[in-house]
Amino acid sequence: MADWKYLVVGAGFAGCTLAERIANHLQESVLIVDKRNHIGGNSYDEYDKAGVLVHKYGPHYFRTDSRLIVKYLSQFTEWLPVKYKILSFTHGKHFQFPINLNTWEQIHGRPCTADEMITSLEHQRVPIENPKNSEEVVISQIGWQLYNMFYRNYTMKQWGCAPSELDSSVCARIPIRYDRDDRYLSAKFQALPKYGYHRLFQKMISNPQISILLNTDYRDLRQQMTFKHIFYTGPIDQFYDYQFGPLPYRSLRFEFETLDVEYFQEAMQVNFPNSHAFTRIVEIKHATKQRIPSTTIVREYPIPGELGDPYYPVPKEANYKLYEKYSQLSARERNTSFVGRLATYRYYNMDEVVDQALEVFDLYCQRNGFPTGSDRTLNQISDPIPTSLLRRGVNQHIPCHFH
């Protein structure tokens, strides 16, 4: 059996970033193991039978305000600029979402000004100085009517509990705008990997120093081999054999449907904050800009974490307290680092996961006398993204024969 210096558990963004840095910066051998049959974690994409590039585990809308992350990932991909557009189907109509001045005009059926919208919402909002949960965050901004119209049912379906039971950070992620900016996200850099996430991951871990074992449980390896250091990106409660009990997660069931039409819906994503069992329908082809006669849509059905893969840590105070018990155990580890959404029980975006992985790697280097591997002087994006990073004129993905 090969002698690998490092073990990385999980082949998603965190794991591939760490493996890439170990191989290319430390020039050491590293083994990645993953229980699935592919690399890329939840960001994995593939071409279905109709030739449509689909995100297998739900849409992954890459965005960031970090120049460091753009520079780092641009080593492995060109970019396809994307304007992520979302609609919300409620009260029998499609409304722009997040709420903006256009949404306001749709609701009132007439032209409005930003001042009118601000003044009206000022009367509707519930004055709460320090919102303690997601319900309070929303009603303190827009009041009960719009909360019930766009947020309440969607959030209950997604998380399996009332917004009043969830941490304030959940709904605080969604902006309220008083202009006509109808983008779903506000980050300065919004794009998709030009040839898909899977190709990006392939390039990240192309160094011969990196080996990959799929369909593999890392616990089997730990009984047979020793490593200089382990970087773990899986569920932290599983690492400790659920010593304090399982951490709650939410999972998803995906229902794919291919249709013989160019497009099925007006936008890439349509939310359903109503009685439908699914939360949204995603047609990622709007973002990938493929020019083919068929399309594939995906309906998402939230389910309890124990019925599927763990996707979302459930942001409740009691769950954070339970995680803290595991975190205290992990702090005593000398040869294992915990990285990513599942290992640190936080609802991170993709760029945040990459940033955390780079930071953990730099910390490891510092503690062991190696030069750090990322340029932390690259702070937030304050100017337009260079056009060299956004290769325009991309109309169709080149089929990836590695899938």
Overall description:
This protein is α/β, with parallel strands linked by helices and 403 residues long. Among the domains are: 6-47 and 194-247 and 311-381, Rossmann fold; 86-172, no CATH class. It is 31% helix and 18% strand. It contains 13 helices and 17 strands. It has helices at residues 13-24, 67-73, 101-108, 114-124, 134-159, 169-172, 197-204, 218-222, 236-239, 285-288, 317-330, 341-344, 350-367; strands at residues 6-9, 30-33, 45-47, 53-55, 63-64, 79-81, 86-90, 93-97, 189-193, 210-213, 229-232, 249-259, 269-271, 280-282, 295-304, 312-313, 336-338. The strands form four sheets. Strands 8-7-13-14-15-12-16 form a seven-stranded mixed β-sheet. A five-stranded parallel β-sheet has the order 10-2-1-11-17, with helices on one face. Strands 5-9-6 form a three-stranded antiparallel β-sheet. A hairpin with an 8-residue loop joins strand 13 and strand 14 (280-282). The two termini are 27 Å apart.
Termini gap: 27 Å
The Rg value, from CA coordinates, equals 22 Å
Q: How would you sum up the global shape? A: globular
- By CATH, the architecture of the domain at 6-47 and 194-247 and 311-381 is named 3-Layer(aba) Sandwich
Identify low-pLDDT runs: 390-403
Number of strands: 17
What share of the residues lie within helices? Answer: 25-40%
> How many alpha or pi helices?
13
What is the CATH first-level class name of the domain at 6-47 and 194-247 and 311-381? Alpha Beta
The helix-and-strand class reads alpha/beta
| Strand order across the largest sheet | 8-7-13-14-15-12-16
- Estimate what percentage of residues fall within beta strands: 15-25%
